[in-house]
Write a structure and sequence with these properties.
Structural class of chain A: alpha/beta
CATH class of the largest domain in chain A: Alpha Beta
Number of strands of chain A: 12
Distance between the termini of chain A: 76 Å
Number of domains of chain A: 3
Number of helices of chain A: 13
Oligomer: homodimer
Largest sheet of chain A: 6 strands, parallel
CATH superfamily of the largest domain in chain A: Response regulator
CATH architecture of the largest domain in chain A: 3-Layer(aba) Sandwich
Strand order of the largest sheet of chain A: 2-1-3-4-5-11
Helix content of chain A: 40-55%
Largest interface: A-B, 54 and 55 residues
DNA sequence: TTGTAGGCGTTATCAG
DNA sequence: CTGATAACGCCTACAA
């Protein structure tokens, strides 16, 4: 590079201050000189350095996004929503793939601090991680707003965009109950994540409303990944009284369940009922009608970014209460929740 | 914020230069003073500003990644590979979702220039776009290396990481031919993309080797998306002499083909044969055995980043010839390439 | 081994 | 409306 504001000033025979004014659209510049400057800028192919500008104004247009796994389509959708809003408002995005590693998360937050990012969008690795919590708190205290997405962090003093996991889950399980199911299994999400916990709560709540006792043999701990769900299914289906319905608490676990069913000749929606959390577009293409608790994932990212922008624009008023947005879920019934009742021994 | 190198210096009773030396691990600092400084840094919670540092050294640790569609799992995998390598070498990633829009691409490149990024990884929107070409050339001339990924740009004067699309495609079609197919259709990719063109070339080459005349009625223009492929399939299967095999030139088009087949009661691997380009992990979970031309996508991102890093580390030697890396493809046969020969009229 | 001082490219505050 | 000039936070000769 090399060409700077002085070069332009010299070329246009004005001072650097004037060039700066032109760049920033100050109204106090004569049209004539403005034109001159513009011309020089074009001629020299000058692009102002955001670095210098930021240093001078102490104000970046960059935000950070910490995500546990970019390969997961769910997070890609969130990113998509974020980038849409960011683009609209002229923000750049630093992306940090924490790869579900709290250590990396910590390191990335350091990097974020060094870069003097203006705000942070984060999907924490571990809902209970003390270090993350402290780091994020200190960001907020330093006037760098933080918005959590999908997963929360401890006592909820952060802004966040979540979805109504509890309600969605309850609705799904209630649907099973109305359908006549009484032995309903759940493949749980990790305990250290808000979505995992809330969906588990919803499950219990639905049972309780129907006065069905909670039977722990139908509760399988999962990790939001396919393999574990597959194994859980195996265990469930080998029981003396296997469940007639399974509630799978995220998209990947649903796949594990489906794979097990297919491999073992179980027809979904007949031999075994299944409702998943989060839709899987691909399934439609391959003719599998999975009922799911759906939500607008991309919209979650979008809203999170919008919220962050709002916070960034009105700094100072820190001690506003944390604002939490809950995205509605929608139960989409496609048939997999049904069953051939004769098969089950109620 | 506010706390800077001078605050630390004062606290440690040394000069700012010494603090700087400590930060940058200069060997010319007495252990004693170093300890003092470190302590002050901790005590004050000081984090050096990357902005100021960059401005001073004229040297960022940030690179940019321009991607046409983050929602596409193929690109997510590339990003995953990139971020792995970036993390390893301490680079931060600016992500720009061009959303297949050349205008955005242009704007993002401007932003990248303003941010004084150290290097660029780009998957161009349009292989023939003149503006993009010029912008990227000027980056290279200014010492900002550019590495293309998957898609190229015009006359190939850029570094790039591609895959052996031509060979992979030829292999797939040859497989069909060996299997006895003679009416082989192709769902093409967009003409303005290298992968699209190369796969199309491979198709023709295979036919030509087997001295099978090219029949344009079996060639359908696609756009790498599901819908168009579905429609193409519809047209193909309604012909008097429908193809017995279809080569689908990317993952999304394969889905369109599969959806069509399933919806119309065509058994893949019996009534109709299908080979796709790029594997789709999910299909395995749902029991669909699709044969595909596979490649290590994440590895492509990784290699691209490594190449970029190499370029960034040895600036100056600009006029080295562009280095192009071609990732091998692998034909994975799972059965969908087979057919019940009786069905087709050869 | 340590300190002084100038520069990196902008913006912003004053005068004029 | 325009031009000096001092920050912004750090690095790096050059001196000491």
């Amino acid at each position: 590079m090399g060409i700077n504001i002085y070069d332009v000033a010299q070329n246009a025979k004005v001072s650097s201050a004037t060039v700066s004014r032109v760049i920033n659209g100050s109204p106090h510049v004569r049209e004539e000189t403005k034109a001159k400057v513009m011309q020089s800028i074009k001629a020299l192919g000058y692009t102002p350095s955001a670095l210098a500008r930021n240093l001078s104004t102490g104000d970046t247009h960059n935000i950070g996004f910490l995500v546990p796994d970019i390969e997961n389509p769910f997070f890609s959708m969130i990113l998509s929503g974020i980038s849409k809003a960011a683009d609209e408002y002229g923000y750049n995005i630093f992306i940090f793939n924490t790869a579900d590693d709290a250590g990396k998360e910590c390191r990335f937050l350091e990097a974020a601090r060094a870069e003097r990012l203006r705000g942070l969008l984060v999907i924490p690795v571990d809902s209970r991680n003390e270090t993350t919590y402290k780091q994020l708190r200190s960001f907020v205290q330093d006037g760098v707003p933080v918005v959590l997405v999908d997963r929360d962090l401890r006592d909820g003093r952060f802004d966040g965009v979540y979805s109504e996991d509890f309600f969605g889950s309850m609705q799904a399980v209630s649907c099973f109950l109305e359908e006549g199911h009484r032995r309903i299994a759940i493949i749980n999400g990790p305990e250290n994540s808000r979505p995992g916990n809330e969906r588990w709560r919803g499950y219990k709540e639905a049972l309780s409303k129907w006065e069905i006792p909670l039977q722990m043999q139908y509760v399988k701990q999962g990790d939001f990944h396919q393999e574990r769900a597959y194994d859980a299914m195996a265990e469930l289906m080998c029981m003396e009284h296997p469940p007639t319905a399974v509630f799978s608490s995220n998209n990947l676990t649903s796949l594990g369940c489906i794979r097990y069913a297919l491999e073992h000749g179980l027809s979904i929606g007949e031999d075994i009922s299944l409702i998943g959390f989060d839709d899987i577009e691909l399934l439609q293409a391959v003719g599998i009608q999975l009922s799911v608790v759906d939500r607008d994932t991309s919209q979650m990212g979008w809203k999170a970014m919008k919220l962050l922008i709002r916070r960034m624009h009105k700094a100072g008023e820190d001690d506003t209460a944390a604002s939490e947005i809950y995205m509605p879920t929608k139960l989409i019934l496609r048939g997999s929740e049904k069953w051939r009742r004769s098969h089950g021994t109620v």
